[in-house]
Amino acid sequence: MKRFLILQLRPETEASDAEYASILDKTGLSPDQTHRIRLDCEDLPAGLNVTDYAGVIVGGGPGCVSDDPATKSPMDARIEAAIMGLMPQITAKDHPFMGCCYGLGILAAHLDGDVSKDQYGEPVGPSTCHLTEDGARDPLTAGLDQTFDAFVGHKEAVQTLPDGCVHLVASDPCPFQMIRWGQNVYATQFHPEANAQDFEERINIYKHHGYFPPDDAQRLIDICHAADVTQPGEVLRRFTQRYG
To answer: Which of 57, 60, 65, 56 has its CA nearest to residue 84?
Structure first.
């Protein structure tokens, strides 16, 4: 079986390791069924061909594709360039791809979509999502609860659906919670890998990164632990089952 390529963007080792562990937990993959690359500390292999992998999963991170390039740190710019450099291969081959949170911005930006902080940003915590008509038919989302909670936390968002994309999941605060391009290229604004403990750790790690007032950290942690978030992980599990 081909491995899944797991690309991680978080420069904090604790957050990156926990995210990778959560991806393994939700998908049921073992470490030897994945090729993990932390783009904050290593480059993509020269000549990487995405078809050598069963699929590509991109984790979240503190970067924003819509930020002024002049304000991006060299590391953030390098990470973004590495991911964006793979997107032409992925869309040209309609190769299985799952972008989580930041990965939605990457996909939409590659497709010349409008990604910005103008509206639809969401505070850290659970968000109530619902399936669209297309979502009720898609292999990754069909049969999920019509309405479900998912963990979110993002400053930027997709403002309009990029050309050629199918809208699968929406929420009132943020219309584009999950989209598909072609038949196999997916991205979510919510975090399909995350549970309440993951978000508690991320809230403590990122509480000075502008997502929320630092004094709100404990209140947000309590909200996350009180939420019932079960459906998003099924999306990630189905992705690896379908393409593995």
So the answer is: 65
High-pLDDT (> 90) share of the chain, %:
94
Nearest by Cα to 173 from 124, 215, 129, 212: 129
Q: Tell me the whole-structure pTM to 2 decimals.
A: 0.95
d(CA 4, CA 239): 11
Amino acid at 35: H
Total domain count for the chain?
A: 1
Interatomic CA distance for residues 117 and 168, integer angstroms: 22
Rounded Cα gap, residues 185 and 181, in angstroms: 5
On whether the CB atoms of residues 193 and 104 are closer than 8 A, the answer is no
- Rounded to an integer, what distance in angstroms lies between the CA atom of residue 193 and that of residue 102? 13
Pairwise CA distance, residues 183 & 186, whole Å: 8
**192: domain CATH number?**
3.40.50.880
pLDDT the model gives residue 227: 95
Ramachandran assignment for 72, one of left (phi > 0), alpha (psi -120 to 50 degrees), beta (any other): beta
Across all residues in the chain, what is the average pLDDT? 95
pLDDT tens sequence across 81-117: 999 999 999 999 999 999 999 999 999 999 999 999 9
Q: Which domain holds residue 55?
A: 4-243
Q: What is the DSSP string of 41-71?
A: T-PPPTT--GGGSSEEEE---S--TTS-GGG
Q: Whole-angstrom Cα distance, residue 112 to residue 100?
A: 18
Residue 149, helix vs strand vs coil:
strand
